[in-house]
Design brief:
mainly alpha, 2 strands
């Protein structure tokens, strides 16, 4: 995305194919939707390093959200459907920057729903009474 902002992004062969980015964008958007009937395991690149949750996890999540908002604002004047990017998972998977934003925002709903479910579990710390 930074390359798109600076105008230095080189388009790959896969990004130039006219039908693949739209197809991949649609498929990935459906796959990460909390409403998806088919639940997928996160690719290894996106899995947490450990299952231990430290006290800074909420702050890191909020920091990541702020960074995402800054990127989105920085690209506000660009034609996001015409900017094609490559997935960090596979160089064969391409989609528009607009689809990337849709995928990210939709996927964040999963994290928020997970946090809500966790907070409703018996034994979850409730804070000072």
């Amino acid at each position: 995305m930074l390359g798109a902002l600076s105008g230095e992004k080189k388009t790959t062969f896969w990004e130039r194919l006219p039908f693949l980015p739209a197809l991949w964008g649609k498929l990935l958007f459906q796959a990460v939707s909390p409403d998806s009937a088919r639940k997928l395991k996160a690719p290894k690149i996106f899995q947490p390093a450990s299952s231990r949750i430290d006290g800074e996890i909420v702050q890191r999540f909020l920091d990541q959200q702020e960074q995402l908002i800054r990127y989105m604002k920085a690209t506000a004047g660009l034609d996001l459907e015409k900017i094609i990017i490559t997935s960090p998972i596979s160089r064969l998977v391409t989609y528009s920057l607009l689809d990337a934003y849709r995928i990210l925002v939709t996927h964040e709903r999963i994290h928020l729903l997970q946090a809500t479910r966790m907070s409703e579990m018996e034994g979850f710390p409730r804070g000072p009474s």
